[in-house]
Amino acid sequence: MTLQQQQRGPNSGELVLIVDDVPDNLALLHDALDESGYTVLVATSGEAALARAAQALPDIVLLDALMPGLDGFEVAKRLKAAPATAHIPIIFMTGLTETEHLVAALDAGGSDYVTKPIKPKEVLARMQVHLRGARQARQAKQTRRALDAFGYASITVNAEDGRLMWQTPLARQLLMSYYGTQAPTTPAPVLAWLRRHLHEAQAQIEPPRLYAELGKKRLSLRLHQRLGAGEEAGEESGDWLIVMHELSDAAIIESMGLAFRLTSREAEVLYWVVKGKINRDIADILGASTATVKKHLERIHAKLGVETRTAAAAMALTRIRQLHPSWEL
């Protein structure tokens, strides 16, 4: 965290960097933004703007297009080229109204522009639009990072046109393995499931999960939330975040063995008991005799402190769902 960010109290406004070589312009905007609750930094040259932006990481930049030395177009290009500042929205302030100049501002990385003489109310309105978009992008990124950190893959899908808009590297691998598709194509079963349950999601009722099988592995998909759509938007709009988690028989068996201090074979037997298999079926699956499965089950009962396979299965199922919330029978 930078020094400027540390100095911003928890109730302070978002940080705005104003770049203009004309003091009167700076004063006008500074006062208007300050009164509106923003924390304001100023720079009077392109070089100072780059230094301030790198140090403070403002939430938005108001940038004069024409300045002596390093002009606004070059400042914008450099901000967008630097990973630390590339995400910051830039609003150009320019007296140039010719189409080629406005296009140049956008090509340089500008998100928007306002024309001089500056009207503070117009600037504030434009800022609010881009700051709202930036906040939503940051929230989405934080959500994805948190999910990835715990081994969950995520994708975003546009419900209206069905395109896969974003995916983590793990999600890319999982979609190719389970469905044989890659962005921007959303797997047909996933898209159909999404559209079928949008009404529930809109009503903040968690829809049923979608599952896909691949050998002994199982992919769970959960409809998490909608990103970047206003309250007035309809169901068939916005990008929806879908969280995926892959589980395998081996992972469940290993976690049961650790939880109940079972041997690997005892954990396997208990897993198939939870799945509703009888001793003969378990023997066939494990390549063992029915008598051997029975002996393992007796030891399992002793370790779990229960007397019946039904009680053992119920205890194991409860623990599995605690350790692997996305797992279902």
TrEMBL record:
Record domain HTH luxR-type: where: 255-320
Alphabetical UniProt keywords: DNA-binding, Phosphoprotein, Transcription, Transcription regulation, Two-component regulatory system
Lineage top rank: taxon: Bacteria
Pfam families xrefs: GerE, Response_reg
BP term (GO), one: regulation of DNA-templated transcription
GO cellular component: cytosol; protein-DNA complex
InterPro entries recorded: CheY-like_superfamily, Sig_transdc_resp-reg_C-effctor, Sig_transdc_resp-reg_receiver, Tscrpt_reg_LuxR_C, WalR-like, WH-like_DNA-bd_sf
Span of domain Response regulatory: 15-131
GO molecular function: phosphorelay response regulator activity; transcription cis-regulatory region binding
Residues bearing PTM 4-aspartylphosphate: 64
Protein name (database record): Response regulator
UniProt source species: Paucibacter sediminis
